[in-house]
Automatic annotation (TrEMBL):
Organism whose genome encodes this protein: Halobacillus mangrovi
Name of this protein: UPF0033 domain-containing protein
Sequence similarity: Belongs to the sulfur carrier protein TusA family.
Span of domain UPF0033: 7-31
PROSITE patterns membership: UPF0033
Record InterPro entries: TusA-like, TusA-like_sf
Origin superkingdom: Bacteria
Length: 75
C-alpha cells in the first residue's frame, strides 16, 4: 500500500483523533492514502463512520500492541 502521509494520534482522547484526521486529510490529494495511529478505543468506530460519511474509503485497520492503525483513502 502506498501511504502518502502518516498521522500519529496516539495518546489522544476523543474527539482529537478525528479532529487531527480531518486536518491531515485536507493536506492530501484525492486518491491518496492516510495512515492513522491511535490508542483511543473509540477511534475504531469513529474513524470507520467518519470515513464513510465523508466519502472516503477505509482500506484496512488493525491493532498492534494497543495501537490501532487505519488506512483511509481520500475520496
Amino acid at each position: 500500500m502506498n501511504v502518502t502521509k502518516v498521522l500519529d494520534a496516539t495518546g489522544l482522547a476523543c474527539p482529537m483523533p478525528i479532529v487531527k484526521t480531518k486536518k491531515a486529510m485536507k493536506e492530501v490529494d484525492s486518491g491518496d492514502v492516510l495512515e492513522i495511529h491511535a490508542t483511543d478505543q473509540g477511534a475504531k468506530s469513529d474513524l470507520t463512520a467518519w470515513a464513510k460519511s465523508g466519502g472516503h474509503e477505509l482500506l484496512q485497520h488493525e491493532e498492534e500492541n494497543g495501537v490501532f492503525k487505519f488506512w483511509i483513502q481520500k475520496g
